[in-house]
Amino acid sequence: MSDGPHRSLPLRPHWRTLARRAAKAAHSPDEVAEALPFALKRELLQAPLKKIREILCGDTLFPSIRIEQLESIRGKHTGSAPAQLAIDCAIAAVANGATGEAGAQAAVSAALADTMHSALRATEEHYQREASPRSSSYVRQRLDAARQKVDCSALARELLSGNAPPKREAINLPTRKGVDEGPPL
Question: What would the pLDDT profile of 89-114 be if each residue is shown by its tens digit?
Fold first, then answer.
């Protein structure tokens, strides 16, 4: 028995969950929109957010020193695309003159937006290849509706709040197990 087009979807499980919700009409648009911030947070928690925040909030006056510090943490996260993206966005924020909490928030917000754009495009391309054109346009419409409900700045504030970002395991998508918790009729 096949899992349909989801089995060959080359994305992490949290993105596949979003794709399943977008592809099935049994899931409401709100349930699709609920899965997108979850997937974004799970993805970006692989980045060294605490260290990026410390560097951008540091007391140096020279942007070149901040950029050197950011480049030095890049080597510790060579296999992590979310970490590399977050570091690139932090370097761009420093180059644009953003520092402190505002700079850290701008960097994480840009990383979230770029991650969302890339993952949604990859999901749409997968459905274009593997499924019918009708289903790919349906998935695209549902993902676009979910994308419009996401506030990357609010997610960035949430990830950067406090001294340390939440653990990946602490972010869970609620599951519905009861009969009364099914799709609306």
Answer: 999 999 998 888 999 999 999 999 99
CA distances from 52 to 38, 41, 70, 152 (A): 21, 16, 7, 17
Angle between helices 49-56 and 100-130 in degrees, nearest 10: 140
Backbone angles phi, psi at 52, to 5 degrees: -60, -45
Q: What is the CA radius of gyration of the chain?
A: 18
127's tokens: 């459905």
For 121-134, write each residue's pLDDT tens digit.
888 888 887 766 66
The residues, ordered by sequence, that sit 6+ positions from 61 with a Cβ below 8 Å of its Cβ are none
15's CB contacts (< 8 A; 6+ apart) are 9, 39, 43, 119, 122, 123
Residues 64, 114, 141: CA angle, nearest 5 degrees: 165
Q: Tens of pLDDT along 163-178?
A: 555 555 555 666 666 6
**Residue 46: how many CB atoms within 10 A of its CB?**
17
